[in-house]
Amino acid sequence: RKKVVVLISGRGSNMNALIEASHDRDYPAEIIGVISDQADAPGLKAAQARGLSTVAVPRSGFSDKPAHEAALVDAIERMGAEIICLAGFMRLLSAEFVARFEGRMINIHPSLLPLFKGLDTHKRAIEAGMRVHGTTVHYVTAEMDGGPVIAQAAVPVLPNDTEASLGARVLKAEHAIYPLALALVASGKAAMQGGKTIYSGLEGMDFEE
Ligand code: GAR
């Protein structure tokens, strides 16, 4: 099983979904640790309660961004991560950091990329009059929210949706697709090549609900 470290900044519900999935013995990845840039992230406590090793690497402890990123790299490598999952990690990573883990670092974003990169995605989807919205798991590249897509899930935008009601629907979809996408990457069924996601060995997999 591939060793995975999850990077979070907050609640950690996607982290939890990955941990849950990895409790299945047949799941191709094992969550070995959690790193947060926020010392008080609720997700850190949840990870500790599950017996995972956790590290807080707050930006405030370092003189500049390169020093902070060096500490993040150190924590990731000490844990022995083979794959890094960003799960609500709300910090932009430098091109150097991203290059170091290219093809081994994935992120979940709360929109159907390439629509609605950045923040406040649910509010913007409603304002744009979208009737579908969703979530994307993608490889992390130097372009923010711009790396090749691994998996997506769409949800309807209902007439009376608020940012909160739509966000809750998307979050549920996130908890379903992040474990699926990580399984594809950890098993080698998805890989990043030439700036694209290539798939192999999917024969016999059932993508229907
Ligand atoms: C998730 O909706 C994730 O897609 C989003 O933050 C939330 C984290 O929730 N990520 C981003 O917006 C990244 N720019 P969680 O902490 O409960 O997993």
UniProtKB/TrEMBL annotation:
GO biological processes: 'de novo' IMP biosynthetic process
Q: Which residues bind N(1)-(5-phospho-beta-D-ribosyl)glycinamide?
A: G12, S13, N14
- Pinpoint the Formyl transferase N-terminal domain residues: 2-182
Entry keyword Transferase: yes
Print the keywords alphabetically: Purine biosynthesis, Transferase
Q: Which Pfam families match?
A: Formyl_trans_N (PF00551)
EC number(s) on file: 2.1.2.2
- What catalytic activity is recorded? N(1)-(5-phospho-beta-D-ribosyl)glycinamide + (6R)-10-formyltetrahydrofolate = N(2)-formyl-N(1)-(5-phospho-beta-D-ribosyl)glycinamide + (6S)-5,6,7,8-tetrahydrofolate + H(+)
Q: Which PROSITE patterns match?
A: GART
Q: Which residues form the signal peptide?
A: none
Sites where the protein binds (6R)-10-formyltetrahydrofolate: K65, M90, R91, L92, L93, N107
According to its UniProt record, in which pathway does this protein act? Purine metabolism; IMP biosynthesis via de novo pathway; N(2)-formyl-N(1)-(5-phospho-D-ribosyl)glycinamide from N(1)-(5-phospho-D-ribosyl)glycinamide (10-formyl THF route): step 1/1
Single GO MF annotation: phosphoribosylglycinamide formyltransferase activity
Q: Where is this site: Raises pKa of active site His?
A: D145
Q: Where is the active site?
A: H109 (proton donor)
Sorted alphabetically, which InterPro entries does this protein's record hold?
A: Formyl_transf_N, Formyl_transf_N_sf, GART, GART_AS
Alphabetized Gene3D superfamilies for the sequence: Formyl transferase, N-terminal domain (3.40.50.170)
GO CC annotations on file: cytosol
- Per its UniProt record, what PANTHER family does this chain match? PHOSPHORIBOSYLGLYCINAMIDE FORMYLTRANSFERASE (PTHR43369:SF2)
Q: Which family does it belong to?
A: Belongs to the GART family.
The protein's matches in HAMAP family, at most eight in alphabetical order, are given as: PurN
Role noted for this protein: Catalyzes the transfer of a formyl group from 10-formyltetrahydrofolate to 5-phospho-ribosyl-glycinamide (GAR), producing 5-phospho-ribosyl-N-formylglycinamide (FGAR) and tetrahydrofolate.
Tell me the protein's name. Answer: Phosphoribosylglycinamide formyltransferase
Q: Which organism is it from?
A: Limoniibacter endophyticus
Source organism phylogeny: Bacteria, Pseudomonadati, Pseudomonadota, Alphaproteobacteria, Hyphomicrobiales
